[in-house]
Task: structure prediction
Amino acid sequence: MSSDKRKVFVVGLDAANLAHLHRLPRAADCTFHAALEIGDIRGVDHYDLPALIDTAAQRMQANGPPSAVIAYFDFPASTLVPILAARFGLPGPSLRSVLECEHKYWSRRQQQTIIPEHIPRFRAFDPCSATGGSGLPMPPPFWVKPIKSYRSYMGFLVNDEPEFLACTAQLCAHAGYIVEPFRALLRAYHMPADIADMPETCLAESLIGGAQCTAEGYVWDGEPAIYGVVDSIRERDRSSFARYQYPCSLPTAVQQRMADIACRAVRRSGLDNACFNAELFWDQSIDHVWLLEINPRLSQAHTEIFELVHGVSHHKHALDIALGYHPSPLPSTGSYPMAANCHVRVFHDGRVKRVPSADECRRVADEIPGTSVRVRVRRGQRLCELTNEDSYSYEVANVFVGGADELELLEKYHRALDILTFEIERTD
Result:
């Protein structure tokens, strides 16, 4: 191994994304190391952020000198990148800009100053206070969520006061898993007192809807750019995602409006030297675009589908920026004009009695070109033991497919399901 290769440290390194990193154009000049392993940040009982920061810094020091630090997972990985980049003098976003994007109330307050017509009504509240459940924060229906979460963890749709009471009990009991270490970080790094010390830990937002998309982008030298828009398609009559499909099917003019709104919000946050993804809706009935949120990282859930279409994943942009290069456009050397990440979901709790075998997963890849499987559960596991799922379903597998059009994508997906066998014993 050449000693002059650049050492890139990943916060939350996992095998699947490492394989994508090794296929990037700059990978030949880099070695990839774990600042933190995926097991350090997922499936843990609690988050000790000072300990995680110290562990990551010690690994980077011992195996350095580091040339870059990157992440592709949400909290705490995305939050630790600016801390580690600053400590080692590496390119990266400011901690304040990342925290502002990730704090759902703080970000809404900032967006209200620049794109007020594109965000819902919102109000912060404390689900654990004496009055937390004795009065609705706004007329129902509305969504409630912690000021910090990911993958829709602890997000609930409220239709009436009894539902609000039930949801506040859940939020009070469980939202602190992510909210409390996040708030401790705000205070430790001296974020504005009205944000860091606010007693409210949750947010209520009026309903927005329509066709949902995710705009993937980056900020270089203060200027945001969008390089791809992904359809986020939900299960019929449910809030859980059925699949992510790329490229986006919405009219080009609508995508351009979405990009403009997302870039305006990103500029307001001060985010720089970073990737981001923006979740938006287009309500066709009133021809209106809504911004759901800005995430200061790329969405690793889109990694396979970008590689199927472009020939390389969008990790390319994250690595370029972290190494100090202006990202060049993604190539057009993929095998398929369209791709999807399909979510295999179960809508009840249960114990996993059987998962697809390695032979079944190989059969899918061998018999259905452009298709691969990632199983997310193990035999004997209770679905309720999965961490950070949305409030209404459990994701047990992903099927990645490439094809000529949407019809072919769905046909390949259903062929794969015919091969894969799950047995889940329903429990109350």
Remarks:
- The radius of gyration is 21 Å.
- The CA atoms of residues 153 and 213 lie 19 Å apart.
- The chain has 14 helices and 17 strands.
- The first strand starts at residue 6 and ends at 13.
